[in-house]
Amino acid sequence: INAEVLRARPERNQKMLQIEPERNKRTSELKLKQELGLISAVCLIAGTMVGSGIFMSPEWLLRYMGSPGGSLLIWAACGVIALLGALCYAELGTIIKESGGEYIYILRLVGPVPAFVFAYTSVMVLRPASTTILLSFAKYVAAPFYPGCSPPQIVIKCIAASCILVLVTINSLNVKLALSIQNVFTAAKLSALLTIVIGGLVLLVKGHTTVFQNAFQGTDTNFGSAGMAFYQGLWAYSGWNTLSNVTEELKHPEVNFLRAILIAVPLVTFLYLLVNVSYFTAMTPAEIISGAAAVTWGNKVLGSWAWLMPLSVAVSTFGGVNASLFTGGRTCYVAAREGHMPEILSMIHVRHLTPSPAIIYSSVISLIVIIPGNFGTLVNLCSFTGWLFHGLTLAGLLYTKNFKKVDFRRMLNEVTILIPIVLFIAAIGLMLAPVISSPRVEYLYVAIFVLSGVVVHAFFIHFKLCPGLLRKLTLFLQLLLEVSPTHKTEN
C-alpha cells in the first residue's frame, strides 16, 4: 500500500513518509514513542480507576449488603482483588512487552479466535460504552444554565459529543499533551477525594460515630447479594489493568510496570475506604441509599462550597474518559496490527507518532453510542463479560506457568501461583453472580453478541471477504490521514 501511495502522489507522500532522524535514531521505520514515565503511569492508572464509580457505587453497595460494615468490607475486598489482578498482569507484562492488554495476552497464551472475540467485544461495545459516562459530565455542566429544571437531552448529548471530539483531537495530535491533561485531572480528582476524607476525619474527631456502633447490623449474607455488591464495587475499581494496554509506550516496563501498580492501586483503595467512612460519618444509610451521595455529603458538610462536589464528579468523569480513549485506541491499534482489524487501524501518523486512525475509529463508535441515551442498561448487562476475559487471561497465565517452560520473573515468589488461581475462581463467580441473582433474558442477548464474534472472525479474518474494497478504502484513508504502517519492536 505504501508503494501505491507513493505512485499516487509521489512528491507529497515521499515527504510524508520520511521519518525525522531525531524521532527514531536506530531505525527508519515508524513506531510508537515511549512517553510514559513512572509518574504518568501512576496517574494513568489512578485516573482511570477514579471515575464516577466512587460517587455512584456507595449507594448500591449499601443497598446490596444492608450495613455500613458489610459495605466497607466489600470495598476493601475489591481493592485487594484489583491489586492482585494488577500484579498478575504485571507478571505477564514482564514477558509479553506488547501493548493491547487482555487482547495481546489472550492472543499469545490462548489463541487467535478468543483474542479476536475479545477485541470485537471491546472495540464495538465495552470501550465505547465507557465513554457514555460523559452524559453525566454534560448534565453537570449544563445544569447551571437551566435552573429549576433538567437540561434538554439534545443539549446534554451535544456537550458530551463535543467533549469526545476535543479529547480525540488531543489524543491524535500529541501524546505528551494527552498525558499532561491526564496528570492534571488525576491530581484534581485525588484532591477532591482528599477533601471528602478530611471532612470525614473532622466529623470523626467531633464524635460522629453513631453509624459505626452497630456497623454490621442487618448485613445481607446471601451469595447473590454479595456477588452484586462485588460487581458494583469492582466497577469503581475498573482501570487497574490500564497499564497493560500501553506497555510499548512505558519507559523501562520491567521496572515501572510493577512500581506504578504498587503505588496507584493501594493509594486508590486507601482513599476509597476513607471516602466511604466520611460518607457514613456525615449521612445516615438511608440518605446514602437515596442517591447522589457525594452531592448530599457536600450539602451537609461544605455548606456554601457544596458546588465543589458536582464539579468533582464532572472532573472525574472527564479524566476517566480521556484515559479510556487513550488506552482504548491502543487496543484497537494492536488488534489491527495483528490482522484482527482493518489494516488502516494499525497505522500511526507520520509526524505526531500517534495511532490516530484507531483513536478516531473508537471515537466514532462512542459518538454513535451516545445517540440513544439509554445505553446504560446495555453497559450493565455487558460489563460482566469483562470478567469472562479476565478469567480467560488468568487461565492462560496458569497454563503457561505450569505447562510451558517460560522464565517468569517471580515477583511474588512462592505464593505467585496461588494468586491467579484465586482470581480465576473469583472471575467465574463474578461473571455468574448477576445471572444467578437476577436472571434476565438480556444476558442471553449479550452472550449471543459475544459469540457472534466467532462468526465475524470466520467471514472477515479466516475467509478474508471483501479484500478489494478494504484495500481501496485503506489506500484512500492512508492518504487522507497521513499515516503509515508501524514497526513493532521484537521482545
Automatic annotation (TrEMBL):
Domain of life the protein comes from: Eukaryota
Subcellular location as annotated: Apical cell membrane
Transmembrane segments: 36-57, 72-92, 104-123, 154-173, 185-205, 257-275, 305-329, 350-371, 377-399, 411-437, 443-463
The keyword Repeat belongs to this UniProt entry's keyword annotation: no
Gene3D superfamilies: Amino acid/polyamine transporter I (1.20.1740.10)
Membrane topology, record value: Multi-pass membrane protein
Keywords: Cell membrane, Disulfide bond, Membrane, Phosphoprotein, Transmembrane, Transmembrane helix, Transport
GO CC entries: apical plasma membrane
Primary location recorded for the protein, binned into one broad class: membrane
Reaction(s) catalysed by this chain's protein: L-cysteine(out) + L-arginine(in) = L-cysteine(in) + L-arginine(out); L-lysine(out) + L-arginine(in) = L-lysine(in) + L-arginine(out); L-histidine(out) + L-arginine(in) = L-histidine(in) + L-arginine(out); L-leucine(out) + L-arginine(in) = L-leucine(in) + L-arginine(out)
Tagged with keyword Transport: yes
GO molecular function, one term: L-amino acid transmembrane transporter activity
Family (UniProt): Belongs to the amino acid-polyamine-organocation (APC) superfamily.
UniProt-recorded name of the protein: b(0,+)-type amino acid transporter 1
